[in-house]
Amino acid sequence: KQCMIDIVSNNNNNYRQYYYPAASMCYAYEPSVKKGEVLDNRFKAHKWWLPSAGELARICYYELQGFNYTNPKAIFAKAYNAGILTLPSDLAWSSTEYSASYSWSVRFSDGYVGYGSNKNYSYSVRAVTAF
Fold first, then answer.
1. Which phi and psi angles does 27 have, rounded to 5°?
2. Which residues pair with 112 in a beta bridge?
3. Cα 108 from chain centroid?
4. Which of 34, 45, 87, 103 could be joined to 30 by an S-S link, Cβ 3.0–4.6 Å?
5. Contact 46/25 with Cβ under 8 angstroms?
6. SS3 57
7. Among 10-19, 22-31, 49-58, which range has the highest average pLDDT?
8. What residues form DSSP beta bridges with 124?
9. How confident is the model at residue 41 (pLDDT cuts 50, 70, 90)?
10. pLDDT recorded at residue 1
11. What is the DSSP string of 72-123?
């Protein structure tokens, strides 16, 4: 918190060029676990990131394959059906910038990838990690 206060005060409240809330939220993310379970170190905070537009598009592609075990491209079926995976139902931010004011986003309902997402808008953020 103090770091953010310093950035704001030292830059005349023009801090958005130094601070990226969506990326910070992903970096700080840590999933909760059920009582008695222990979260593996590879899933703890600071192991997650805001995916690029390409990474999000690939996740969306596989999500659009459905959750039927008979489809070999439905790679999320097991995790989704077990209730351990949720994906955005609409637009999600990516880490890929289009300009100082716009970023690329992916619409999970149909796979649309677009750059018309003004950074002032509120969309979902989907943190990802490698495992």
1. -60, -35
2. 107
3. 12
4. 45
5. no
6. helix
7. 49-58
8. 92
9. very high
10. 47
11. TT-TTHHHHHTT-----SSEEEEEEESSSSEEEEEETTTTEEEEEEETTS--
Percent of the chain with pLDDT over 90: 20
CA angle, residues 2, 100, 112, in degrees to nearest 5: 110
Cα→Cα distances 74→19, 28, 71, 78, 84, Å? 36, 29, 5, 9, 15
Residue 7, H or E segment? helix 2-10
Read off φ and ψ for residue 73, nearest 5 degrees. Answer: -85, -5
Q: Which two tokens stand for residue 8?
A: 């704001």
121 pLDDT above the threshold of 60: yes
Tokens of 16: 């958005």
Instruction: Return the structure tokens found at 25.
Output: 């939220």
